[in-house]
Amino acid sequence: MEETTDKLLEKYHVPTLHVSFEKLFTKDSDTSEWKRIFEYLDIGPHYRLTRQDIERAGHAATSLPLHNVTLRNYEQVRNVLLGTKFEGWLH
């Protein structure tokens, strides 16, 4: 379905920007994906954007915030991710 939508947007010459959901909502200080969006739309801060700015702005949740509620095998996933660069995604 996503590919079909992409093809339709391309067919009708609708400008698009592809971004990474994971990069948008990671807990580290990288805000480059948000900056790309603001630059593309020519709105908002194009520089000096901090993770704190993003957190203060807030966003609407699109799912339950607790992985232990949404993942049936949460403990198994948690144990695998502990000590890796992905550990921050557990929160």
Topology overview:
Elements (H helix, E strand, L loop, with lengths): L1 H10 L9 H4 L7 H10 L9 H7 L9 H4 L3 H8 L10
Task: Report the span from N to C terminus.
Answer: 30 Å
Given the C-alpha coordinates, what overall shape results? extended
Give the low-confidence spans.
Answer: none
Q: Give the total of beta strands.
A: 0
| Structural domain count | 2
In DSSP terms (H or I, runs of 4 or more residues), the helix count works out at: 6
**Average pLDDT, all residues:** 85
Could you say which structural class the secondary elements and strand pairing correspond to?
Answer: mainly alpha
* SSE order, one letter for each helix or strand: HHHHHH
How is the biggest beta sheet arranged? Answer: none
Specify Rg, calculated over alpha carbons. 17 Å
Helix content: 40-55%
- Beta-strand portion reads under 5%
